[in-house]
From TrEMBL:
Keyword Membrane belongs to the record: yes
Coiled-coil stretches: 310-380
High-level lineage: Bacteria, Pseudomonadati, Bacteroidota, Flavobacteriia, Flavobacteriales
InterPro entries according to UniProt: HATPase_C_sf, HATPase_dom, His_kinase_dom, Sensor_HK_TwoCompSys, Sig_transdc_His_kin_sub3_dim/P, TPR-like_helical_dom_sf, TPR_rpt
EC number per UniProt: 2.7.13.3
Enzyme class at the top of the EC tree: transferase
Leader sequence residues: none
PANTHER family linked to this entry: NITRATE/NITRITE SENSOR PROTEIN NARX-RELATED, NITRATE_NITRITE SENSOR PROTEIN NARQ
GO molecular function: ATP binding; phosphorelay sensor kinase activity; protein dimerization activity
Cited CDD domains: HATPase_UhpB-NarQ-NarX-like
Protein's recorded name: histidine kinase
Length: 599
């Protein structure tokens, strides 16, 4: 006779396939990895994914969902007592959250777990079935009704009432066809084949007919577990027909199918059928081989202990559930209170630290700005002092120069001009009286004129011998750089090339004023620590490059027409027929290039 255990397994397969889809709606925790593990029958992946989830920090709904998946995992690795414990936890939590549909889905998995146990009191199972059927009828849930009809069909097979079982399985087929769920049509055909074994009279031909109708569905959808049991049941058919060798072939086909769920109990069923068939064939050697395999498998399965554990656990759980809920509620309240106090203290502490840090930062920033302002004022004072000194020196130099020119004009040129006047008077007198040789007198007069010209030229050369207190452009710029650098806030280096000869006095003074103005701008605005003044004279062209490593600025945003300092410099350079170019990058310093023709 076909083992009853198989049909209960079949019911579980159909129910869980639907439940996995239903239970993963409206969840916050990502259970995708777990679901993928179930689809691939990769239970190692399922186990690792379940362990990764911290059940203490997730919502109650996600915790109930986690209980469900953990129960399903334990069921698939044949730990039925643990599976029943956690599916009961899942259902009770869903009920508490008023998630009745999810609780009903838990009933389906619980029925599947209980259906795997032999000689177990079925009162719990009956209660689950009644509750699920009432809900399905109330909600007009055809899919859920199909699950219940499967359960009724399996129940009537268990009671050996084949006609009733076939009646319920036939009701399922139009439902699953409307859902385009063709794999479940295969399940119905297989279950109907079993039901024909319990009709009066038994219809063996109908049994093999529906078995063969189910087989293509399992192959198409790669349902290896169902296909293995299908081959096993076909083997049972040929065994009843006394076609024992053909029966062995189908039993071996069933054993050869790779399955990932319910492995131990399935193998035990297949080996038991193979051993019994070899016994009928009087092949005692192979019978002994499979009996030995059966003995090893039975050592790994302890249904009796699991049944007792499930029954005891159900009683303990019902009596302790209220107390546990109260304890969990109180513990959660205390945990939330502690969390609130901790967060509040951390918030107050963090706010205090932030305020103190902010105030201290503002004080430091203010002090730094004051110190910077003082240094700027100090540098500006140095520049002003230098400018005043330079102006004073120029004024003194000019006064001395005027005095020297006056003395030269009086002492040298004056006597020559007086003598020259006498010679002109002699020429005038001698033109009529001719006492002196006229040519000799003209030569002396011409010599005096040449002497006066040379003295005037000498005075002019002496006047141009100095600039800026007789020191010259290069020396003046070097002195300015040295004085500014002595403050130790900015280092200014002066580099020169080709300035072996002096420039025209007015040009040197103008260039010095331009360099002085640009240096002042660096001190005021650039925040630089180093600057370079490069002055070179090449091929009648004076080139000046002033660079700094300061904060730079956006050249496009500078309006040279509005800026007084830069505008003045640009105007002076244009007056000298020169060019003025600014190159600056923010945070990378500035360069100013000036080219002035030196004719």
């Amino acid at each position: 006779m076909i083992k009853k255990k198989y049909y209960l397994i079949k019911f579980f397969i159909i129910s869980v396939a639907l439940l996995v889809t239903d239970i993963c709606v409206s969840q916050n925790v990502d259970f995708k990895s777990i679901l993928k593990g179930f689809r691939l029958n990769d239970y190692n992946r399922v186990s690792k994914s379940l362990i990764k989830i911290d059940t203490l920090s997730i919502s109650d709904y996600d915790k109930a969902t986690w209980y469900y998946y953990y129960s399903d995992y334990q069921f698939r690795i044949d730990k039925h007592d643990i599976a029943f414990e956690y599916i009961t936890k899942s259902k009770n939590l869903f009920v508490k959250l008023n998630k009745i549909k999810d609780a009903i889905d838990c009933n389906i998995l619980a029925i599947g777990v209980l259906s795997h146990q032999n000689k177990l009191n079925t009162e719990i199972e009956k209660d689950l079935i009644r509750e699920t059927e009432s809900y399905a009828l109330e909600k007009n849930d055809t899919l859920l009704l199909s699950k219940i009809y499967k359960r009724f069909g399996a129940k009537y097979i268990h009671l050996h009432n084949g006609e009733k079982a076939i009646f319920y399985f036939k009701k399922i087929i139009p439902i699953v066809k409307n859902l385009t769920d063709t794999i479940r049509v295969g399940y119905c055909y297989d279950n109907m084949a079993t039901a024909f074994l319990y009709t009066k009279p038994i219809h063996l031909d109908s049994t093999i007919y529906y078995r063969n109708k189910a087989t293509p569905y399992y192959i198409k959808y790669k349902d290896n577990l169902s296909l293995a049991y299908n081959y096993n049941n076909i083997g049972q058919y040929y065994k009843l027909k006394n076609q024992l060798k053909k029966s062995i072939d189908y039993f071996n086909k069933a054993d050869s199918i790779p399955i990932r769920r319910n492995i131990l109990k399935s193998k035990l069923l297949f080996y038991d059928n193979i051993a019994d068939t070899y016994k009928k064939l009087k092949d005692y050697k192979n019978e002994a081989l499979y009996l030995k395999k059966i003995s090893k498998l039975k050592d790994s399965i302890n249904d009796t202990q699991q049944n007792i554990a499930i029954s005891d656990l159900d009683k303990k759980y019902k009596t302790a559930e209220k107390e546990k809920q109260l304890l969990e509620s109180e513990a959660k309240r205390k945990q939330n209170l502690l969390y609130l106090i901790t967060v509040s203290l951390l918030l107050i502490l963090g706010t205090t630290i932030y305020i103190l840090s902010y105030q201290n930062s503002k004080r430091k920033q203010k002090l730094a700005e004051q110190e910077k302002e003082l240094e700027t004022q100090k540098n500006l004072t140095l520049l002003k002092e230098q400018e005043i000194t330079t102006i004073n020196a120029m004024v003194d130099g000019q006064e001395k120069e005027r005095k020297r020119i006056a003395e030269d004009l009086h002492d040298n040129l004056g006597s020559v001009l007086a003598t020259l006047k006498l010679h002109f008077e002699n020429l005038k007198i001698n033109r009529t009286k001719r006492k002196i040789n006229q040519e000799t007198l003209f030569n002396k007069t011409e010599n005096l004129i040449d002497e006066a010209y040379l003295k005037v030229r000498k005075i002019a050369h002496a006047k141009n011998a100095g600039v800026i207190a007789n020191q010259g452009l290069l020396v003046a710029v070097q002195m300015m750089a040295e004085k500014i650098s002595s403050a130790e806030k900015i280092q200014i280096d002066v580099i020169d090339f080709g300035l072996n000869k002096r420039l025209e006095n007015n040009l040197e003074i103008t260039v010095f004023r331009i360099i002085q103005e640009l240096t002042t701008n660096i001190i005021k605005h650039a925040n630089a620590t180093n600057a370079t003044i490069n002055i070179s004279l090449y091929d009648k062209n004076l080139n000046i490059i002033i660079e700094d490593d300061g904060k730079g600025f956006d050249v496009e945003k500078v309006d040279l027409k509005k800026g007084i300092g830069l505008s003045s410099i640009k105007t002076r350079i244009e007056h000298l027929e020169g060019t003025f170019k600014i190159d600056s990058t923010i945070n990378k310093g500035s360069s100013i290039i000036i080219d002035i023709p030196n004719s």
